[in-house]
Amino acid sequence: MPSLFFDAERLRDLNSGLGQVCLHLGHELVRQCPADWTTTFLVPKGMIGLFGDTAQYLEASWKRKIWIADRYEVWHCLHQDSVYLPRRSKLVLTIHDLNFLERADYSPDQKAKKLAALQRKVDQASALTAISAYTASVVQQNLHLSANQPLRVIPNGNALAETSGQATEIEPTLRIEQPYFLFVGVIHPKKNVHTLLPLLEAFPDYRLVLAGPDRHPYAQHIREQAEKLGTADRLIMPGAIDEATKRWLYAHCEAFLFPSLSEGFGLPVAEAMTFGKPVFISTLTSLPEVGGKEAYYFENFDPEHMAQVLHDGLVDFEQNILRQERLRRRAAGFSWSAVAGEYWKLYKDLVRNSPVA
Q1: The pTM is what?
Q2: Which of 22, 139, 170, 278 is the most buried (most CB within 10 A)?
Q3: Where are the alpha helices (DSSP H) in the chain?
Q4: Is residue 39 assigned to a domain?
Q5: Who contacts 100 (Cβ-Cβ below 8 Å, separation ≥6)?
Q6: Mean pLDDT calculated for residue range 182-194
Q7: 313 vs 83, 123, 232, 257, CA distance in Å?
Q8: Whether residue 269 is found in the same domain as residue 147
Q9: Strand-pair partners of 75
Q10: What range does the domain containing 307 cover?
């Protein structure tokens, strides 16, 4: 009986992007599991049974790097930083991004060491997946793949596309007076959210909500800049938010703003489109793959340009009654059901030892 081992250890941070990927992909993998396969999940302490009683479980340990017996045909590492690797199983390695290559706070030596460590994992893998075509291109440019080592692009799913109706049914922990513009994501320099602050001057009737973990010093920089601009009273930074609050914020915002410099995928953009909200995003890295023709794009980060793009986009959105439905349809295209289906095709191909297209 073929067996799958799935590394879901990142469930330890359930509200993070990787935590949500583990949760939703894990549920779909179990739902679609062929009758002749078994699945085993590596989960954090206290989460045994999360995916139902048809699956098997092993509990991850932070005290020691556990070596798990190689009794699995396929071993799926869901992110490139995992420390849980097989010795002999056929390894599927999912790469979310190589953003460390763009980090100004990393020296060339640090980047080279991280790239070499990732190359060792790539060398061990039987197949690689990337969550966007952009990420796949960066992998091909910076890592060596053997001729018989497939690389597939399998985008992330969008769980909110199936549960958006819960926005008004679940009580949020935070409510914001409208109208407001919204950003969701970690408050980090690569997210480039300081470029949104001048928009508060251009749109004096609006608030700006920057929702996400704000432990990085960049978050304090944002607050200080808002003070200097005299707009601190209309800047709201609630820190990390729960799923119910995130849904409420998406559902009630005027527009979603995401001027990020570096993304492996850009899930918040798809989530905002789920609610039929106009999205204003940068043209960089993977974001055009998510936004497509339905997004409005910041071609640069000049304050006047961004204000004009936002103004014109809001007017266009108001006048184009079909755009909201097109946004929802595009968001629904990022389906966890489809993602799991693609992974099951890959697992089966590896077990059959057939070439993977």
Answers
A1: 0.89
A2: 22
A3: 17-31, 108-124, 133-142, 160-163, 197-202, 217-229, 243-252, 267-274, 287-291, 303-319, 323-332, 336-352
A4: yes
A5: 106, 111, 114
A6: 96
A7: 44, 46, 25, 12
A8: no
A9: 5, 91
A10: 161-332
